[in-house]
Design brief:
By secondary structure, the protein is an alpha/beta fold. It has helices at residues 6-9, 11-31, 39-54, 80-91, 110-120, 131-143, 164-170, 186-192, 219-225, 251-256, 282-290, 292-297, 301-315, 321-326, 330-341, 381-389, 416-449; strands at residues 62-63, 98-99, 104-105, 124-128, 147-151, 157-158, 162-163, 174-178, 197-203, 232-237, 261-265, 276-280, 349-356, 368-375, 395-396, 398-400, 403-407. The mean pLDDT is 91.
């Protein structure tokens, strides 16, 4: 049993994990005379520790949350066609930095940049590791030691502690705050311009939205209000290009309005691997490509190869994962839900209407209609969620009003039998946990009676 983990987590890490588990058992036995750490107990402790370690491994999981771009689950799933198209380049050698035509060293990931620029409608583009790197590179190259104008309502923090003021400070820029939390106009930006102004920054507010008495200038109004020497840089974030998602402004719209650079994610609405794209002015992109930070932020061949295939798919009119999910007919989702329900114990699951979301900071308060299965947990919703996560193919679901909800919009392309088997396993193990808990309670009451 222990040897089975060698292929999963390596012999070395398995040995280290078992050694640590046995040391803990030894310590327990030395400090508690009543505790017996025999072979059976030690073996069980070692296997339990190995299981915990194995659950940290990257593996296939089932997303039942209804959040398409779930950051905790790796955001956008890359299409199988893109993966297959990139396989030979990733598993072999590839012309990452070689001009095959000239036989000389060429621009790193050359086609990927061309494709990104074409999709964005930009003069040029540059691909980096993620959108945070894209923003940091743009600000470091263009505003170090100078001022950057940012609206107060856009000085945001998103998941993982990413704060706009911190990025500005790291880039060596001084930020100039304009407007109030809910209101900012083009004249606020214009008045803030001075000899030390490097650029104005528009920030996608990502995981929250302001509603009610709010106002801000359109990108075109902002560009028109500023001197030609002050470029507008946009942290667009979501990577909305061709998708029609409420609350999202496409990259091309910013560029057509005159914004100089737009930074966005490649692994959100675009549906690619983790990456960041900077699109816009050819002159500014060339400056960024020469900056020392670019070498630290540039991707490798796996990212270039995958992103190339994804960009080709988008340019050829294929939908990204979020756009495709929003277009799914509800009747198809209901068919999937009924098929899964038919393989579960009777009365345990109910087909219900739900609301799904793009996620990943895209349209933060926008949802779309979906269908789900409402599971009646044998013990508690939390216990069933935990059991589903421990299945051989884990399933991540939501809890609501004491029930567990499995959304179909993020499971549409999964095997219904696999989903049903995982739910059945979770139900069975959740029920066994309840039985164990009841035995512990009964034993406690019995001891108390004595």
């Amino acid at each position: 049993e222990i040897e089975a983990y060698f292929a999963l987590i390596s012999r070395s890490l398995a040995t280290k994990t078992v050694t640590k588990a046995l040391a803990a058992e030894r310590e327990h036995a030395l400090t508690d005379e009543a505790y017996v750490a025999d072979e059976k107990v030690c073996r069980a402790a070692a296997l339990a520790a190995l299981k915990v370690m194995d659950r940290k491994r990257q593996r296939k999981i089932l997303n039942g949350t209804g959040i398409m771009l779930n950051t905790n689950l790796g955001r956008a799933p890359v299409s199988i066609s893109a993966w297959e198209g990139a396989r030979d380049a990733v598993t072999g050698y590839a012309p990452v930095e070689l001009d095959l035509e000239a036989g000389k060293r060429g621009k790193r990931g050359a086609l990927c940049h061309e494709l990104a620029a074409t999709l964005a409608g930009a003069e040029a583009a540059l691909v980096v590791n993620n959108n945070a790197a894209a923003v940091l590179l743009a600000l470091s190259a263009l505003s170090q030691g100078k001022e950057v104008i940012v609206a107060r309502g856009e000085q945001v923090q998103i998941g993982g502690g990413f704060r706009v003021p911190d990025i500005l400070e790291l880039a060596g820029a001084r930020f100039v705050e304009v407007g109030t939390t809910n209101i900012v106009d083009a004249d606020d930006y214009r008045k803030a311009c001075g000899l030390e102004t490097a650029c104005a920054l528009i920030v996608h507010t990502s995981n929250f939205a302001l509603r009610g008495f709010t106002a801000k200038p359109t990108p075109a109004e902002l560009v028109a209000a500023l001197p030609v020497s002050v470029p507008v840089i946009v942290d667009q974030g979501s990577g909305c290009t061709t998708e029609r998602i409420p609350g999202e402004t496409p990259v091309r719209t910013y560029l057509e309005a005159g914004c100089a650079l737009v930074c966005f994610s490649g692994d959100k609405l675009l549906g690619g691997p983790q990456s960041g794209i900077i699109a816009g002015s050819a002159e500014l992109i060339a400056r960024l490509a020469k900056h020392p930070l670019y070498r630290a932020f540039r991707p490798g061949k796996a990212i270039y190869a995958l992103l190339e295939r994804v960009l080709v798919e988008r340019l050829n009119g294929e939908e990204g994962p979020a756009g495709a999910a929003m277009a799914l007919p509800l009747e198809e989702l209901k068919k999937l839900a009924r098929k899964i329900r038919g393989k579960l114990p009777k009365g345990i699951a109910t087909v219900i209407d739900t609301k799904a979301a793009a996620g990943g900071g895209s349209g933060p308060d926008e949802v779309f209609d979906s269908v789900g299965l409402e599971l009646d947990p044998p013990s508690s919703a939390g216990a069933l969620q935990a059991a589903l996560r421990r299945a051989s193919v884990p399933l991540v679901a939501l809890a609501r009003d004491g029930k567990v909800i499995v959304d179909m919009s993020t499971l549409m392309h999964e095997d219904a039998n696999l989903v049903a088997d995982t739910i059945s396993w979770g139900l069975e193990h959740s029920a066994s946990l309840r039985v164990k808990a009841e035995r512990i309670v009964d034993a406690g009451l019995s001891d108390a009676a004595k």
